[in-house]
């Protein structure tokens, strides 16, 4: 999966790695100008969770016989939840790969 958001995060990681200059590179103070990576990651995970919960509620409502919920609406919500979960999994996989690559670097 080639998500522009994933590529943006990876580009930021590469830029920070270059600026750091390795394990003993210059130390910068945390900038309060932009969003924190951890906060951004948490917000994305929360959004995926909300998408999955909403899809589950729609599926439950449809299976309970709610006349206001259509099958197409349920299927679209479930597919949206699936795609967002796959994207989150891909981000996690790439973060793990980047971490493993950093751990293999020689000092």
UniProtKB/TrEMBL annotation:
Subcellular location: Bacterial flagellum basal body
Sequence ranges of Polar residues compositional bias: 9-18
Chain segments carrying region Disordered: 1-38
Gene Ontology molecular function: any one: cytoskeletal motor activity
InterPro entries named in the record: FliE (IPR001624)
Keywords per UniProt: Bacterial flagellum, Cell projection, Cilium, Flagellum
A GO cellular component annotation in the UniProt record: bacterial-type flagellum basal body
GO BP annotation list: bacterial-type flagellum-dependent cell motility
UniProt xrefs under HAMAP family: FliE (MF_00724)
Homology family: Belongs to the FliE family.
Identification of the protein by name: Flagellar hook-basal body complex protein FliE
Organism in which the protein naturally occurs: Natronospira elongata
Gene: fliE
